[in-house]
Specification:
CATH class: Alpha Beta
Helix content: 25-40%
Oligomer: single chain
Low-confidence stretches: none
Number of strands: 17
Number of helices: 13
Strand content: 15-25%
CATH superfamily: Alkaline Phosphatase, subunit A
CATH topology: Alkaline Phosphatase, subunit A
Order of helices and strands: EHEEHHHEHEHEHEEHHEHEEEEHHEEEEH
Number of domains: 1
Shape: globular
Structural class: alpha/beta
Distance between the termini: 47 Å
Mean pLDDT: 96
Largest sheet: 8 strands, mixed
């Protein structure tokens, strides 16, 4: 290497529950993520800034909350003029690469919000053969949008499939709207594992790292894996790796939703009336439907979900091994996390939405850099995905712009400080007047407020870590609620960005 600045490798999954690392959960096998954690720090209190993809992923690259960067929900574009961490790193000599899932743009395009992540352009392979960036601060991109066998397949992944001899790759994915329907796939997918997008993401990430190491330039590479996001479908042997009878789904205790806002209870009805929350723009709100699933199906889905994670773990191991073979493991800061969590029967829920339980907003989070990040440690120091951009800049010795709202966690990651923040804020805005909520969480307590609605949530995570008792309307907690509201207000004020410093009296 020609510089002492660290390489930066961000590895993310999509929609991964925080309790899915084998070192903590004996029902799943993740030897490579376990190795990463054993060689670095595992953070047990990491949070997303929003529990759906586009807002959270946009916060990763901007260091801004969704209410500031503008991609406030899915189906909304992150504007290309919003500054990103990749731009700052590239300006200081880094090679910047994104491999895998992006999801910065919607599945439609209009004159006001143009999108590269919609049909028919996603299957216009001639376009993608020519386009590799720059895009959102990444000088080189190789991307694909779908999950499982969704019809969104295309882009650079489809080109790779054809280069590997799979000219009929379209037959492995669901038809485009208007094409003849095919039966829904569940569980085992006939797509060969070595041609799955999980293997593609690892292979292309390794190729990018090899290129940058050969060039002698520090790199910032984001390996963005698509799984274990539903649909629950994965090739063998991963589809049969776990037995459904061995799974331990989350539970709903009798009466636990009685003190929760009414939309929680509706999820347990086969045909609940969610019309109160219908999006006025005509788009569905995530999770506002029945969550009732037969236990046998839930166990099978969970087994496939675990298989998807173990498949991804194997491919992450390839990346970590290659860092060692190239001699750059010690000079590469590796961060593993996800964009948001997931429900597998927890509290009776099976899909993400306006349900800010820890299952959805808390994340697996591991940091490793031998000789710089202490090994074999774990901590409850609160992390947020909005902190990744400023922390990467700090690690690279680059000043953090005042516009960024995240805080640098670099002193915490390197063992020089106990914590960089005392709270996390999670936004969720699908439609401002119908579904708009925020959560404030600190070491012990957690509170959620709904815009224009007297209902809310308050949990004591020490006495009630499984969040079974909502204290929002408990008369004994009136003073506690007021104190939390005051601390939350201070947090809201403190996260206001300062793009420019003051340089004169007027």
């Amino acid at each position: 290497m020609t510089t002492d600045r660290p390489n930066l490798l961000l590895i993310t999954s999509d929609q991964q529950h925080w309790f899915t690392l084998g070192r903590d959960n004996p029902r799943i096998r993740t030897p490579n993520l376990d190795r990463l954690a054993n060689e670095g720090i595992q953070f047990d209190r990491a949070y997303c800034p929003n529990p759906v993809c586009t807002p959270s992923r946009s916060s990763i690259i901007t260091g801004l909350y969704p209410s500031t960067h503008g991609a406030w929900t899915i189906g909304v574009k992150l504007a290309e003029d919003v500054p990103t961490v990749g731009q700052h790193l590239h300006e200081h000599g880094y090679t910047t690469t994104l491999i895998g899932k992006a999801h910065f743009q919607p599945l439609a395009s209009t004159p006001e919000q143009t999108s590269l992540e919609c049909q028919p352009i996603m299957r216009d392979l001639d376009y993608w053969r020519e386009f590799h960036g720059p895009w959102y601060g990444f000088q080189h991109v190789e991307v694909a949008r779908m999950h499982g066998d969704e019809h969104h397949a295309g882009q650079h992944y489809a080109i790779w499939l054809e280069e590997h001899g799979l000219d009929d790759w379209r037959d492995y994915f669901m038809p485009l709207p208007g094409e003849p329907a095919r039966p829904e796939r569940r569980d085992a997918w006939e797509l060969p594992a070595d041609l799955h997008y999980t293997a593609w993401t690892a292979e292309r990430t390794i190729a990018a790292i090899e290129r940058d190491v050969e060039a002698g330039t520090p790199f910032f590479t984001w390996a963005s894996f698509h799984d274990p996001h539903p649909p629950y479908v994965v090739p063998e042997p991963w589809a049969s790796m776990y037995a459904p009878d061995d799974m331990d789904p989350g539970t709903l205790l009798p009466g636990e939703l009685e003190a929760m806002p009414s939309h929680f209870r509706l999820t347990q009805e086969p045909a609940g009336d969610f019309s109160k929350w219908l999006d006025v723009d005509g788009f569905a709100n995530h999770g506002f439907h029945s969550h009732v699933v037969e236990e046998a199906r839930l166990r099978k889905d969970m087994a496939i979900y675990y298989g998807m994670i173990s498949f991804m773990d194997e491919q992450i191991g390839r990346i970590l091994d290659r860092l060692g073979e190239l001699g750059v493991a010690g000079s590469t800061l590796v961060v593993f996390t996800t964009d948001h969590g997931h429900f597998l029967g927890h509290h009776g829920l099976t899909a993400k939405g306006a349900f800010h339980y820890e299952d959805l907003i808390r994340l697996p989070f591991v940091v490793r850099m031998p000789g710089t990040v202490p090994a074999g440690q774990r901590t409850t120091a609160i992390q947020s995905l909005v902190d990744l951009a400023p922390t990467f800049l700090d690690a690279a010795g680059i000043p953090v712009p005042g516009l960024m709202q995240g805080v640098s966690q670099w002193p915490v990651w390197t063992g020089q400080g106990d914590r960089a923040r005392d709270w996390a804020i999670i936004e969720n805005r699908h439609q401002p007047t119908r579904l708009h909520l925020r959560t404030y969480v600190e070491d012990r307590y957690k509170i959620t407020v709904y815009r224009g609605d007297p209902e809310g949530e308050l949990f004591d995570l020490h006495d009630d870590p499984d969040e079974r008792r909502n204290l929002w309307n408990d008369p004994a907690c009136t003073h506690l609620k007021a104190a939390l509201m005051e601390r939350w207000l201070q947090a809201e004020i403190s996260r206001e960005p300062t793009r420019f410093p003051r340089i004169a009296h007027a």
